[in-house]
Write a structure and sequence with these properties.
Layout: E1 5-10, H1 24-36, E2 42-49, H2 64-67, E3 71-73, H3 74-80, E4 84-87, H4 94-102, E5 106-111, H5 115-124, E6 142-145, H6 150-161, E7 165-167, H7 175-183, E8 201-205, H8 217-229, E9 234-239, H9 249-256, H10 259-262, E10 266-268, H11 274-281, E11 284-286, H12 296-303, E12 308-310, H13 313-317, E13 322-323, H14 329-342, H15 347-360, H16 366-381
Parallel strand pairs: 1-2, 1-4, 2-3, 4-5, 5-6, 6-7, 8-9, 8-11, 9-10, 11-12, 12-13
Length: 383
């Protein structure tokens, strides 16, 4: 590459996104920013936004001040003539694309959500997909997709847009978790340590329950089966992010026939910042997903030292947590009981695997920086 380049990353905020913990996508944009800043030929990276409040009016809970990232509106960004505009959490529309093309920008779409399956849900449910990421004619020079979404999304995006699709690392850092701990005056002693659950394990799930991709249905089955097998080891199960769905008939009738509801073991909860809920209520994190095997709530649980029971092949390959396959709630119950009975014994070994895995998803990890650098070189080699 000749000379240095500037990169803009689109960033959305508004009524549905006023807190950096509202979803992981905003955090992901900061981690991407951090990784791109390490590339030798990158001069500047900043956020670009439009149609929203002025940057100085952004809610404090979005943590822009802590991130230290410059934020520009479209006209300000166009004046800076970025060499690359990355479509992050705000969708690039054809008119915005045209404006940036006129100043010579390359356009890259960064995909961190399972758009294909979510679009299928909108389709079969005849739902309003205005909040989705529908195709609108915007063209891209490259599409970057995180590893756990390649299988379902690479053909979808490539065939419809014609843009070349590349896998990029899934990035995470403890930055926001540590900030939330500092704000809540939590320390390392606030989280899991061996022997913490002598009176029975308190289990929590953190799936958002807004899609077939990530919800608590299989986890409820797992806890119910484990409770049937060894009720004395399970003290409570918190189904977070399920409170608003508690009266939906399919869910209400389902859990109503379980022992964990009859015995007062299960409670449906609202949405909480992970760190505070872990510290106060949780001894073990149970997770289930479908085609979304990498997730920040997993990383946060691992970082804080908690046993994690999951069905992610990505984590299984890294020897992290306690794995069960697919939707197999019987295997999940066995994995849950194994975690309860053996985690403390193998605590130090588990922490070593966790540290290695989390190091490899860091925005600063050399392989992750190199991958982004490689794709940018390729982007400009295709002039």
């Amino acid at each position: 590459m000749e000379g240095k380049i500037n990169i803009g990353i689109t960033f959305y905020w508004g009524g549905s996104y006023t807190n950096i913990w509202s979803n992981g996508a905003g955090q992901n944009m900061y981690f991407l920013y951090e990784s791109l800043k390490q590339i030798p030929f990158v001069n500047d990276v900043y956020f670009v936004s439009w149609g929203q409040d002025k940057p100085e009016e952004v809610p404090k809970a979005l943590e822009f001040e802590a991130m230290g990232v410059s934020v520009y509106n479209v006209q300000e960004a166009l004046a800076k003539k970025p060499h690359v505009l990355i479509e992050g959490t705000q969708t690039v529309t054809p008119d915005v694309e045209k404006a940036f093309r006129q100043v010579g920008s390359k356009i890259v779409s960064y995909r961190m959500g399972n758009d294909f399956i979510m679009d299928m849900e909108y389709f079969v449910q005849k739902a309003d997909a205005s909040k989705g990421r529908a195709f609108d004619g915007t063209t891209y020079d490259q599409v970057w997709i995180t590893p756990h979404l390649m299988r379902t999304n690479a053909p979808y995006v490539n065939i419809v847009t014609g843009a070349p699709v590349f896998q990029v690392p899934h990035l995470w850092d403890s930055f926001f978790f540590d900030k939330s701990c500092k704000d809540a005056k939590l320390t390392k002693k606030s989280f899991y340590k061996p022997g913490r659950a002598k009176d029975g394990y308190r289990i929590a799930t953190f799936e958002p329950n807004i899609s077939v991709l990530k919800n608590c249905m299989t986890s409820v089955l797992i806890v119910e089966k484990a409770y049937q097998m060894e009720p004395q080891v399970i003290k409570h199960y918190y189904a977070n992010n399920a409170f608003d769905q508690r009266e939906i008939k399919a869910f209400h009738d389902f859990i109503g026939y379980t022992n964990i509801v009859r015995k007062g073991i299960l409670s449906v909860e609202g949405r909480f910042i992970t760190s505070g809920f872990l510290a106060q209520y949780v001894d073990l994190v149970l997770a289930h997903q479908w085609e979304c095997g990498l997730n920040y709530s997993y990383y946060e649980a691992l970082y804080a030292g908690y046993p994690l029971v999951h069905n992610s092949e990505f984590l299984k390959d890294a020897h992290v947590g306690y794995y069960y396959p697919n939707f197999d709630a019987f295997a999940g119950a066995n994995a849950l009981l194994t975690a309860i009975h053996t985690y403390d014994v193998h605590y130090e070994e588990q922490q070593a695997y966790n540290r290695l895995f989390l190091q490899q998803v860091s925005p600063l990890y050399i392989d992750n920086v190199a991958r982004h650098q490689q794709l940018l070189v390729q982007l400009f080699a295709n002039n």
